[in-house]
């Protein structure tokens, strides 16, 4: 229901919270004109009351306890910008929803793990949860899926959803620097989450993919079913060999519904260097949505940062101010199916990097082993190794089933002429 004034309680005044307060303060007249409602902040909460945040919060009531803020009579909507899967973010969200107050959040970890229960709680109390900012920062991808593409049976959702990983991978390539050096650089620049494994382990991006998959396929959010692989094992050698073959390495999320169930994966993959995904540089995100009627939509933009993320937070606030009522994951929570998780069986080409002893018949053994698993070689390259008795070999396969590839890789590791474990990465031609 639309009100003359929408009163926000903001918990969390860090990067995103500060940006949100700035938009409310700087664009009050514009927001009111666009929504027909006066949007005001009445109360705020953070850990430290005395911290200088570069914004004036003196007009707002202060609460040390986010739950107390959520329960205040002068708060209509809780804006949760603290983060965390459990703890105060979950407690404050539950407190608000239980009182029938809608919640706007940027917290993908909370929703990826507790999304279904929280959506049920929201609907039971006539409240909404809005989370545009939780996925791909400033890119309005939740709105695109929930509203703009509502008439499509979605076929695939994929993309680069973690800016830090994309920064690390593109910087490794452009500067020719090893992973550890660029990881440290990203840390020094403040790009990494407090727990860096959330970024480089693919967890943050996996949370985002799980949320999009739920909307796209009408299923209960199931983060545990996302096959996760981080970027920590990617070497500068892989990046330059992939470039030689016309590819870039990206931490790529892919969700699709198959006859076997819902496939969700977040792992380093090769994409064509000339494709929009291949050309994605630095901390930018790109989400590709494919629907039966619309075909392919590509959305690109800032996936993080104060302004872009606050922009998404406030878009949700504007919807609430306009009286727009949407189910959390695009359809009533009770109608979301519990999808059977499926490991990816969709055939795709693979990049294989091997180190071979330079002995007669070594390459023939590799080709035979791949052939025995039904895998056909598309392209192969052996690199100069005049100063070593091992040869770096790169193979691009024709499309093959992931199971067959796994079998071939374990057989390859048994061959005496193959040194160390082969590196195998999927190639996604998007
Ligand atoms: P942040 O800069 O670390 O800020 C977190 C804020 O929460 C701080 O103001 C902190 O207080 C407050 N806080 C933490 N624990 C609290 C508690 N127990 N009680 C009250 N306040 C508490 O985080 P952020 O980067 O703004 O991220 C906020 C949320 O947005 C997270 O869910 C994150 O995943 C999501 N997100 C962030 C970005 C981004 O670009 N940063 C992009 C998309 C989504 P103090 O300031 O006093 O320490
Ligand atoms: N750590 C995230 C990223 C930002 O690097 O994309 C918040 O979603």
From TrEMBL:
CDD domains cross-referenced by the UniProt entry: ACT_HSDH-Hom
Coiled-coil residues: none
Sorted UniProt keywords: Amino-acid biosynthesis, Methionine biosynthesis, NADP, Oxidoreductase, Threonine biosynthesis
Signal peptide annotation: none
Record flagged with keyword Oxidoreductase: yes
Enzyme Commission numbers on file: 1.1.1.3
Pathway the protein acts in: Amino-acid biosynthesis; L-methionine biosynthesis via de novo pathway; L-homoserine from L-aspartate: step 3/3; Amino-acid biosynthesis; L-threonine biosynthesis; L-threonine from L-aspartate: step 3/5
Domain ACT intervals: 351-426
PROSITE patterns assigned to the protein according to its UniProt record, in alphabetical order: ACT
One Pfam family hit: Homoserine_dh
Molecular function per GO: homoserine dehydrogenase activity; NADP binding
GO biological process, one term: threonine biosynthetic process
Residues binding L-homoserine: 193
Active-site residues, Swiss-Prot/TrEMBL: 208
Binding site for NADP(+): 11-18
Binding residue positions for NADPH: 108
PANTHER family: HOMOSERINE DEHYDROGENASE (PTHR43331:SF1)
Family listed: Belongs to the homoserine dehydrogenase family.
UniProt-recorded name of the protein: Homoserine dehydrogenase
Gene: hom
């Amino acid at each position: 229901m639309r009100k003359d004034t929408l009163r926000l309680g903001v918990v969390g005044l860090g990067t995103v919270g500060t940006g949100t307060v700035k938009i409310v303060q700087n664009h009050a007249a514009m927001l009111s004109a666009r929504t027909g409602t006066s949007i005001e902040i009445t109360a705020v909460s953070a850990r430290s009351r005395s911290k200088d945040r570069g914004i004036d919060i003196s007009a707002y009531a202060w609460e040390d306890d986010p739950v107390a803020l959520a329960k205040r009579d002068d708060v209509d909507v809780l804006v949760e910008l603290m983060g965390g899967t459990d703890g105060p973010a979950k407690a404050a969200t539950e407190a608000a929803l239980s009182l029938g107050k809608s919640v706007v959040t940027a917290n993908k970890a909370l929703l990826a793990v507790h999304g279904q229960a929280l959506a049920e709680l929201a609907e039971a109390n006539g409240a909404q949860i809005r989370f545009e900012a939780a996925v791909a920062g400033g890119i309005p991808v939740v709105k695109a899926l929930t509203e703009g593409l509502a008439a499509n049976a979605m076929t695939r959702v994929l993309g680069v959803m973690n800016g830090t990983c994309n920064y690390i991978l593109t910087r490794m390539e452009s500067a020719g620097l090893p992973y550890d050096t660029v990881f440290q650089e990203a840390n020094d620049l403040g790009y990494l989450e407090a727990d860096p494994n959330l970024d480089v382990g693919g967890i943050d991006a996996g949370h985002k993919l799980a949320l999009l998959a739920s909307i796209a396929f009408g299923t209960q959010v199931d983060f545990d079913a996302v096959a996760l692989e981080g970027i920590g094992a990617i070497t500068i050698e892989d990046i330059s060999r992939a470039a030689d073959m016309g590819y870039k390495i990206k931490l790529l999320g892919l969700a699709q519904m198959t006859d076997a169930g819902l496939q969700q994966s977040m792992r380093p993959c090769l994409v064509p260097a000339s494709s929009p995904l291949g050309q994605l540089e630095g901390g930018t995100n790109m989400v590709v949505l494919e629907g039966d009627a619309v075909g392919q939509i590509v959305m690109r933009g800032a996936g993080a940062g104060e302004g872009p993320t606050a922009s998404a937070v406030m878009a949700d606030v504007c919807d609430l101010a306009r009286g727009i009522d949407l189910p959390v994951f695009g359809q009533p929570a009770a109608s979301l199916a519990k999808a059977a998780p499926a490991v990816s069986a969709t055939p795709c080409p693979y990049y294989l990097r091997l180190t071979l002893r330079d002995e007669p018949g070594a390459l023939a053994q590799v080709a035979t082993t791949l052939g025995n698993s039904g895998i056909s070689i598309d392209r192969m390259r052996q690199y100069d190794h005049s100063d070593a008795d091992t040869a770096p070999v790169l193979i691009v396969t024709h499309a093959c089933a992931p199971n067959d590839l796994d079998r071939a890789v374990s057989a390859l590791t048994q061959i005496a002429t193959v040194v160390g474990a082969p590196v195998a990465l999927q190639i996604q031609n998007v």
